[in-house]
Amino acid sequence: MELKTIASAFKIKGDVKSIETYGMGHINDTYLVTADKRYILQRINTSLFSDPDALIENIRLVTEHVAKKLTGEKVLTLVGTEDGGFLVRAETGVYRMYDFIERTQCFQTADAEHFARSGEVFGRFTAALDDFDAKKLYDVIPKFHDTRKRFADFVAALEKNASGRADTCSKEIDFVLNRKHYSPVFMDMLEKGQIPYRVTHNDTKLNNVLFDLDSDGGAVIDLDTVMKGAAGFDFGDSIRFGASTAAEDETDLDKVHFDIGLFSAYAKGYLAYMGKLLNDKEKETLAFSAILLTYECGMRFLADYIAGDTYFKIHRPSHNLDRARTQFRLIEEMEERLPEMNAIVAAACKG
Ligand code: ADP
Ligand code: GN1
Ligand code: MG
């Protein structure tokens, strides 16, 4: 089936005029479809998301709930198929479609003002889901942010050394191994009931928010990994990506710094909505979540490099190693500044 035929199997307005590849995601194949309106068509990466029906059900439940709570805001909206579902299965893969959210901007890096706004957008999104039972959601990728499992997967990739590259990155490997004690922190708190399972997005990169050009708000997109999890998973992942002075794949590490001003901006935005909902333990460990999530993502990039680049999309042979290195640079700086980060969170919770 051609892409045009696939797009036409969804309930779109008018005939398809053009289809072009779109966006900067690492996971799905994204296309912009232009008919009488614009749409986003995505080929779901079914090697990661083995149960597209469960995935789309999670997205349907969450988008419908959020649309009811955040009235008047731009929200992600699925487009149904002509035969009453939300997926089109073709020989090239499984596809879904969203309305293109018009008059928005997507950033790969942000200044403090936009980063604070992304904190507000994710805070508002999570708060809107506070009355949604997280247990209703499928674990589409089980143990997605179980850093203990990510660490075990890292060690397995290292032992296998499928690419033969392990010898070339021993410094980075030691960086991960020396911080093994970080791995259980959040899962332990969840399992002991010290912090609650919430509906979490689990992939809160800055480029998963579309900033509304017509208001102070924005839309949360990329809901593939929406599942139950810890608030820190989302807070930490936002900081990992957005509180850096450089891109995730910057090769010049002199340009990569953890920016505490950006951290503070995001924390204030997020806590304006979530401060009253988080329990004391969640607040106390929120700043540390930035270290943990950066550590987890760095080890995933490094594991993928050692495994021979089978997971994340790459555009050059060293891409995953470059990404891992930026994460480790950020961790070193966050470790030094953790007391200040904790103080910022505590102050934002009060104010
Ligand atoms: P991936 O999982 O590969 O990251 P995303 O769902 O994040 O895929 O989509 C990739 C990019 O496509 C986004 O960063 C954004 O620029 C754009 N995009 C996705 N959904 C929409 C939408 N509904 N409206 C406008 N742009 C979108
Ligand atoms: C992937 O889909 P995308 O590009 O927003 C990944 C995240 C990583 C991120 C690193 C499903 O996110 O977990 O943090 O790359 N998504 C999945 O940039 O694995
Ligand atoms: Mg994305």
Overall description:
The protein is of the alpha+beta class and 351 residues long. The chain has 10 helices and 11 strands. The chain has helices at residues 3-8, 52-69, 112-128, 147-160, 170-177, 185-191, 231-242, 260-274, 280-307, 319-350, and strands spanning 18-21, 29-34, 38-44, 78-79, 88-90, 93-99, 104-105, 198-200, 209-212, 218-220, 227-229. Helix 3 runs antiparallel to helix 7 (231-242) and helix 8 (260-274) packs across helix 10 (319-350). The termini are far apart. The model has no long low-confidence stretch (mean pLDDT 97). It binds adenosine-5'-diphosphate, 2-acetamido-2-deoxy-1-O-phosphono-alpha-D-glucopyranose and magnesium ion (MG).
SSE layout and pairing:
Elements: H1 3-8, E1 18-21, E2 29-34, E3 38-44, H2 52-69, E4 78-79, E5 88-90, E6 93-99, E7 104-105, H3 112-128, H4 147-160, H5 170-177, H6 185-191, E8 198-200, E9 209-212, E10 218-220, E11 227-229, H7 231-242, H8 260-274, H9 280-307, H10 319-350
Antiparallel strand pairs: 1-2, 2-3, 3-6, 4-6, 5-6, 7-9, 8-11, 9-10
Helix pairs in contact: 3-7, 3-8, 4-9, 7-8, 7-9, 8-10, 9-10
The site of magnesium ion (MG) has 4 residues, from loops.
